Amino acid sequence: MQALIQELSKAEYANLSDQAAADVINSKMVWIRVWVDTADAIWHATQEGYYARMKHVADSDPPDENTSAYQCWKAAKNIIGFVESTKTQKIDMDSQGAIAMKTAMVQCVFASTQQVTSLDALANKQVRWVDHNGIGTLGVGLVRNARKMMGV
């Protein structure tokens, strides 16, 4: 109820009827971050062509440990191992591990910045404000009750 009160406190709802306010709030959309299905991340990487590059590097013999090529080989091994693990069902694109992997993909030229940005965008999902706040479809009664609590 607190989220609804905060929303109804905004100036844009001040002159709206209870029904009009409910309609506007029910149609309001927000962006949230969600965990990405590993299969979707692999599909993206395959479609964009960088999965094959990482797989090739990961499957090759390790270069000399004192080179940057070794760091990229190690990164490829880690990324491929992570996404191909049967334990990895979903990826939190905002976790430190995922951020490090995305950074390594660009630094090692497995993927472009644009490709990694596109991969990261798989975690963006648009949902209704009422669903995000656990309210469900808003009715006139809830708006009236919230406004009474606000003293409006």
| Strand and helix order | HHEEHHHEHHEHH
Count of individual helical segments = 9
Low-confidence stretches: none
Report the sheet-strand fraction. Answer: 5-15%
The global form is rod-shaped
Instruction: Let me know the number of strands.
Output: 4
Q: For the CA atoms, what is the radius of gyration?
A: 23 Å
How are the strands ordered across the major sheet? 1-4
As for the number of domains, it is 2
**How far apart, in Å, are the first and last alpha carbons?**
15 Å
Average pLDDT figure: 95
The biggest sheet, with number of strands, parallel, antiparallel or mixed sense and barrel status, is: 2 strands, antiparallel
What fraction, in percent, of the residue positions are helical? 55-70%
What is the secondary structure topology, with strand pairs?
Elements: H1 2-8, H2 18-27, E1 29-33, E2 36-37, H3 38-48, H4 50-59, H5 68-84, E3 90-91, H6 96-107, H7 113-120, E4 124-128, H8 129-132, H9 140-150
Antiparallel strand pairs: 1-4, 2-3
Helix pairs in contact: 1-9, 2-9, 4-5, 5-6
